[in-house]
Amino acid sequence: MTSETRIKPSDSLQGVRYEIRGKLARRAHDMQRRGHEIISLNIGNPGLFGFRTPETMRLAMIENLHASEGYCHQKGIFPAREAVVMQQQARGVSGVTAEHVFMGNGVSELIDLTLRALLDPGDEVLVPSPDYPLWTASVTLNRGRAVHYPCPPERGFLPDLEAMERLVTARTRALVLINPNNPTGAVYPLETLQAIARLAEKHRLIIFSDEIYDQMTYEDAQSIPMATVAKNTLCATFSGLSKIYRACGYRVGWVSFSGPTEGAQAYLEALDLLASLRLCSNVPAQWAVQTALGGFQSIRDLVRPGGRLFESRQALIDGVAASRFLGMVKPRGAMYAFIGVDRAAIPHFDDQEFALELLEQKQVLVAPGTSFNTSYNTHFRVTNLPDAATLSEVFHRIEEVLEGYAARRPPAAVQKAG
Fold first, then answer.
1. Is the pTM here over 0.85, yes or no?
2. Within the chain, which residue ranges are assigned CATH 3.90.1150.10?
3. How far apart are the first and last CA of the chain?
4. Which of 124, 217, 225, 412 has the smallest number of Cβ neighbours within 10 A?
């Protein structure tokens, strides 16, 4: 190989992006190496902000290390899968057995495997916009086509159900639901879930319900498991330890299947084959699942008034309310806010440009809204994981950058004047 040789990446990566850890994040890392202190609001990583995994889960791992040195069953250890079954049954989901549960190295791996087992070239999957971009990327990497259904801010980021149905074609195989939602914090009411279930049943679509934030709701919001609503079509429910139990690094997630599983045996066998090819998921951390799901749910203390996540969320709400430029649909769940900039105040606003300026000038890293497959560039996402005092300081810095942004003449006006 000569110095002139260029190695071409796979064409399958065309259109695949994950900007949450992209160019801006790499720029922030370079700045940190030079001594800058960066406030990283681009990713929901509880451990970065001092949140700890419950001690009982750590002890469960330690006490079972002797049983963790070999491969386990490709679907996961039985106590972990059975704990998921019991949780689903307690929530009103019937018909789920341990054979319908697959453990994975985080939900991320399972998103890839479930789509790989399903899609042929050109098959379509309905994905929300804005979305968690791994869903769009995984559909694309597995030879499918992600078709984005709108969840616009003017609807409180709830799905436009009529638009969703118009997007269904003969090639549509599944629809993706993220509830509570990342990046918007929307929590879907029962009526919305029922309408989505009817649509999926009518068109014989699989529902992929991403419920990783299922207990992280605020005030009167209630997270309703989609599997309790969608009973006449196959429903795959995704969850894990990363967010509710603050254990991102454990890399433990699961998917459980409910509904008419009898007609899905060939698909489930295909998924079992793919799970076998990766041998198994991380064994030590699977021992924490039973303790996590069956033990004290400490997340409830964090999301109620006075709890850290509740108070940090309030700091986001207050920061937006005090701004001349910002607006927001109040997040009702998850650990994010999807914040919009008033076009009337800053007609030339661009989310990517703003995020870079905020990082360079104020050492605050946010995720531009277009990272989440939106058709508009007026939003950015932040996490409410920092404490309230830090977030108050963040909004002070954001306002200073926006003041400077608004004072500048838009590029088109400058060119015309010249």
1. yes
2. 11-51+301-409
3. 50
4. 412
